[in-house]
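Hey, I'm writing a tutorial for new members on how sequence and structure tokens pair up, and I'd like a real worked example in the thread rather than a made-up one. If someone can provide the structure for the chain below, I'll link this post from the tutorial.
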Amino acid sequence: MLNVKLLQNKALQNERIAEKRFKKMGYRVERLDRQGPRKRPDLLVVDGRGPLLVCEVRSIFSGRFLGDRNVHISTEDPRLLDSGVFQREITFEKIEEDLAESIEKYRTLSVDRPECKELPLVVAFFSDFFADEFDYYPSDMPAFPEISGILRIETDYEFQQVASKLSADQILQRILDRAMPPRSKAFRLTVNVNAAHPLPQHFIESCVT
């Protein structure tokens, strides 16, 4: 089974990672979820012109639960390797549950702080290897107009783009010559084409799309 306390700590760590990434991009970040008893999104992101967007951070640790084996399809469940062969299925159920809950928090924030009700809402996903469906989720999200986009952390994007066009020997030589792009992290963004509140263009351009 999954270690609930460990996963709670990892979820908090993921929130800190998202907050740090926004700060690395030059934005200021205000924690919203620590203000008052009602559930709110995690972060308010601010630039020099004022509030920019609201961000909810969601962690998905399991692809699904196999009831007949009493095991999660997750790297966090130590019993998975001994449970036999399994088939991974692409399902958006957990993503859409998280999007719906993020919207509920956003609506609460809009009542508590009306100045935030026109801000774009993004959801940053951190997913287990067996639960990562981010690349398959469509940009057409008609059921979720309050979601302006979804994010995930992309590691070494430019490095991988260059490396994909080179042989192993060429990559090694470029590394020795210090000619490869530096190791990096960035937000990968999927923009919701049905968003009620479009994201600022300068934010979109600062992400991998």
